[in-house]
Amino acid sequence: MTALACASEDNLPQLHVLLRIGLALVVCVDAITWLELAFSERRLLLTEQRYIFLDVTLVVLGFVLIHFEQSARHWRAVTMMFCLTLMADRTLASVAIGRDEMLALILTAILLGTAFLVPWSIWWQGALNLAGLIAFLIASLEGTAEPLDMHRWLVLLGVGAFALSFAALKAQHRRQARLIEKVLDKDKRLARSEMVLRTLFDAVPDVIALTRFSDGKIFEVNSEWLRRTGLSRGHALATSVVELAAWVRPHERERYIQRLRTEGCVRNFEVGFRLNGIVARYLLSSVVVEIDDDRYALNVARDVTQIKENERALRQAQARLRDQVERLTATEARLRGEIADRRDAQARVAKSEAILRQMLDAIPDIVFTRQGDTIVDVNDES
Questions:
Q1: Gap between the Cα atoms of 144 and 38, Å rounded
Q2: Across-strand partners of 374?
Q3: pLDDT digits (tens, 9 = 90+) for 114-127
Q4: Which domain holds residue 217?
Q5: What digits encode the pLDDT tens for the residues 222-243?
Q6: Which end of the chain is more exposed for a tag (fewer CB within 10 A), N or C?
Q7: Are 143 and 262 part of one and the same domain?
Q8: pTM exceeds 0.85
Q9: Which CB contacts under 8 angstroms, 24+ apart, belong to 254-259?
Q10: For residues 367 and 56, which has the higher predicted lDDT (pLDDT)?
């Protein structure tokens, strides 16, 4: 019953199933009518068969129309036309055989069947109820039913009121179902967003903690914080930064809190933290946020120990390189001095050699120099 009441008007496969059930019920009612006349009043069976044949034709046509896209988009109008045609056929059959019992049964079946199976609004159901009353009124005016038979009228009115109430109840159920579906869908999206944010939060390689600004109570930490402190999440959320005693120098925390209180944020504040017994230097950046009318500090700390060591190693390498450059510069200056001295000595030797050559050439006697059997040098006189 709940599934029928909550059937969606936009769920065409489910709607087709419900309409097929309704068409099958029509066939069942016609079969019951045929059997009842066949065993009780066979003289009316021939007249009734023509209308039963028309009903079956309508049912077959209904099964065919369900599969057409155009009729699927306008299923309310198609269903209403089918029900009105069926009411008209049953009214004519009732007048033809002079009995109103089957008309009352068919009208009851149509009103209750649409109320249970067709997920339309109370306006469509009300229009169908009105058509049923008109059909029974026509049968009464033709003498098939007693116009003053209040029992039949009250039953028909009661069935119509129940069908209208059930249609209103189904509409309310559908609205509630859509609302619940939206809420559940929103909850799923929120849960997925929370999972994505948690994954991103834990994937950050820096140490992140959300603390209450007033007393330092820890409200959220990421995986890197847990890894460096060695604490479990439950233990972490039950403590505070004061109890953790992570600040190596308390005066740094006082300066940090003062800046955070006055400026609302701190960027790249270099501090020393002792986490799980390991002291390291961090660059701390924090911002004050308001959550549930309370102030919190979102803290992001980046370990710069390796950076500091790299900087120290770089400075040492630069100092060594500077010393080497200075030594090379001094060596170069000394070599340049030696080269200059050698050039001066060569110049003096060349000058002395020129003077000696002039003196040798000025001697009027023959002068020559021998090395073994070889004459090495002679003067001009030679």
A1: 20
A2: 371
A3: 888 788 888 888 88
A4: 204-303
A5: 888 888 888 888 888 888 887 8
A6: N
A7: no
A8: no
A9: 256/284, 256/286
A10: 56
Say whether both 273 and 168 belong to one domain: no
Residues 65 and 134 in one domain: yes
Residues 22 and 158 in one domain: yes
Question: Per the domain annotation, does 327 fall within a domain?
Answer: yes
Overall number of domains in the chain: 3
239 with 334, same domain: the answer is no
Residue with tokens 């090395």: 371
Whether 83 has a pLDDT exceeding 70, the answer reads yes
Instruction: Please calculate the CA angle 315-319-323 and round it to the nearest 5 degrees.
Output: 170
Tell whether 192 is covered by a domain. Answer: no
- What is the rounded (10 degree) CA torsion for 167, 171, 177, 179? -170
Residue written as tokens 């073994």? 372
Q: Which residue has the higher pLDDT, 310 or 71?
A: 310
Which residue would you say has higher pLDDT here, 287 or 6? 287
Q: Tell me what pLDDT residue 222 has.
A: 87
Domain edge (last residue) among 186, 213, 234: 186
Is the same domain home to 124 and 16?
yes
Q: How far apart are CA 275 and CA 88, in angstroms?
A: 87
How far the first Cα of the chain sits from its last, in Å, is 148
**Helices 150-203 + 101-117 axis angle, to 10:** 10
Question: For residues 272 and 246, what is the distance between their CA atoms, to the nearest angstrom?
Answer: 8
Residue 118 CB coordination number (10 Å): 24
Q: What is the pLDDT of residue 5?
A: 41
